[in-house]
Every structure is written in C-alpha cells, then in structure tokens.
Specification:
Blueprint (H helix, E strand, L loop, with lengths): L2 E3 L17 E6 L9 E5 L7 E3 L20 E8 L2 E3 L1 H14 L6 E5 L2 E3 L1 H9 L4 E4 L11 H9 L3 E4 L9 E6 L10 E3 L3 E4 L1
Parallel strand pairs: 5-7, 6-8, 7-9, 9-10
Antiparallel strand pairs: 1-13, 2-3, 4-10, 4-12, 5-11, 11-13
Helix pairs in contact: 1-2, 2-3
C-alpha cells in the first residue's frame, strides 16, 4: 500500500495574503532540564493545507464540526490541469472521473497551477460533488475568490485548499482529509493523504 502525504508542513507553509502566519512557542524542553518537550502554537484556520466549511462565506452555513466526515473521506479523482479551469474543462474532468470510478467523481483534486473559474464552479455545483481540492491557497482567483466560494459552498461542497500533488499520478485514490474538529469554525487544517488503490 502506498500513501501520499499531500499536506504542507504547517510552520513553513504558504499563507494566503493577509492571513496570519503560524507561530510556534516552545514551552518546555528536555534539553533545558524540563520533564518533557512541549509546544504551543497559533495559526489561522486557513493556513497551509486546510478545508473550508460553508460557514466560511455564509453566516447560516454549516461550521466545520457540522460537516459530515464522508465529505472529506472516500474515493477521489486526481486530474492534471494547468491554467484556468473552464466550464468545458470541468465537464470533461467530471466525465473522465466518472468513466473510471463513479464514486471518485464526487471528490475532485486538481493537480497543477490552476484556478477554478466561476463557470467551472457552477458546473461542479450542479453536479453536486462533495469536494473540490487544489494546490493554491484558494480555489478561485487569488485576487477575487469570493464568487467561486459562494457558488461551491452554497451547495455544501467543501474545499480542500493548499494540497501538494506533484508526486501523485493522475487517477483514482482513497482520500482522507478529515479536518481538526474545531467547534464553530469556518475551516480547519487537516493532514490530507491519498492511498493508492
């Protein structure tokens, strides 16, 4: 069994412009004679590899602890794509995934430097997928991600952002991107992994 770690290391992760960076504080160290090593840290819920809940953009939306775990765990399809994902691209991606594994077509991970356009988001939303993942820190355009988030989160499609897929070939995998259980939060970091079938 091969497991791909598709998560960023938290303290060296990429941070969306304007978000606070993760910070670590060493509370105790055995090297200093303390009984154990103890770390405290602070971070934004959207640092590094993380998931967005509907509450991120909708005040009435589900918070991360209210989203069913089956949205984050299950078969997925990794697809290579560079540049903007258009509506036609989104339709082709879904058709390709469904042809290989119908269950995997519900969770789409986009490998490469790509941006999901609003038109593509609407295709994914109409298809009622569970999850869209990408390598950028935001699923939409970095200079204006709101419309894409509104379109996807309105349909309770969770977003897995900041993943790392450079070592992962296109195809079907078992995804585990369960978030930390942060009650009432709009998103949460996760240790996302892919298991080769």
């Amino acid at each position: 069994m091969k497991i791909y770690d598709i998560s960023q290391e938290v303290f060296g992760c990429v941070v969306f412009p304007g978000d606070p960076k993760p910070e670590r504080q060493i509370m105790m160290q055995t090297a200093n004679g303390d009984i154990c090593n103890l770390t405290a840290f602070s971070m934004c819920a959207h640092n590094g590899t993380h998931v967005d809940a509907p509450y991120h953009f909708y005040g009435y939306g589900k918070t991360i602890d209210q989203v069913n775990l089956d949205k984050f765990i299950g078969y997925c399809f990794v697809v290579d794509h560079e540049g903007d994902v258009t509506a036609d691209n989104a339709k082709a991606i879904l058709a390709k995934a469904e042809a290989v594994n119908k269950d995997a077509s519900k969770k789409i991970l986009i490998k490469g430097k790509s941006t999901v356009t609003l038109e593509a988001a609407e295709v994914f939303a109409n298809a009622k997928v569970d999850l869209i993942g990408n390598e950028s820190q935001t699923v939409g355009p970095e200079d204006g991600p709101a419309a894409v988030h509104y379109s996807l989160l309105k349909e309770e499609i969770v977003l897995l952002e900041g993943i790392r897929l450079e070592e992962v070939p296109e195809g079907v995998y078992l995804l585990d991107a369960a978030p930390i259980n942060l009650g009432g939060a709009d998103g949460a970091p996760c240790r996302a992994v892919l298991i080769e079938l």
